[in-house]
Amino acid sequence: MSNKGRPDVSHISDAIRRDGTRVKRRLGELTDKFDVPTGAEDKMHHAADAARHRAADAKHYARDTAEHARAQVEHLVGRATAGAPPVTGVGKQVLGAARGRPLSITAAAVVGVVLIWWIARRRA
Q1: Is residue 4 part of a domain?
Q2: Alpha-carbon span 48 to 58, nearest angstrom
Q3: In whole angstroms, how far apart are CA 88 and each of 3, 50, 93, 95, 100?
Q4: Is the pTM higher than 0.70?
Q5: How many separate domains does the chain show?
Q6: Whole-angstrom Cα distance, residue 34 to residue 36?
Q7: Residues spanned by the domain of 74
């Protein structure tokens, strides 16, 4: 107190200011701890963003896989169509040879049938 019976205002106002600052800081800490809805909402947004990211990755992976499969099919179709004319040419050659040697072809067919009959009879 001062000489005239009044309290020293400068010390009281400093103490009030310090207490007010401590109370505000503590109140901020407590509101952060008890602000559960905001924390849950942040976690929800984070999970939703992660799910969107995974979905986008899956979409790109599916497109890449489909494109790769399409390229493989085109390659195989190209090979099959390129291989078709020689196969038909070979077939025509075999038919021509069979017409030129009917006796040997007939003998080979009879031997094949007898061989199949003999194998089936042994198994039975």
Answers
A1: no
A2: 15
A3: 126, 57, 9, 11, 19
A4: no
A5: 1
A6: 5
A7: 35-123
Q: Is residue 16 part of a domain?
A: no
Write the single-letter amino acid at 80.
Answer: A
**Alpha helix (H) residue ranges in the chain:** 9-34, 36-100, 102-123
How far is Cα 112 from Cα 121, in angstroms, rounded to an integer? 14
Place of tokens 């019976």: 5
Look at the chain and count its residues.
Answer: 124
Structural tokens at position 123: 């198994």
Say if 66 falls within a structural domain. yes
Three-state DSSP state, 35: coil
Token pair for 100: 């030129």
pLDDT in tens, the chain (124 residues): 445 666 666 777 788 888 888 888 888 887 766 666 777 788 898 999 999 999 999 999 999 999 999 899 988 888 877 765 666 677 777 777 777 777 887 888 889 999 999 999 888 7
Whether residue 23 lies inside any domain: the answer is: no
Half-sphere exposure of 120 (CA within 13 A, CB side): 6
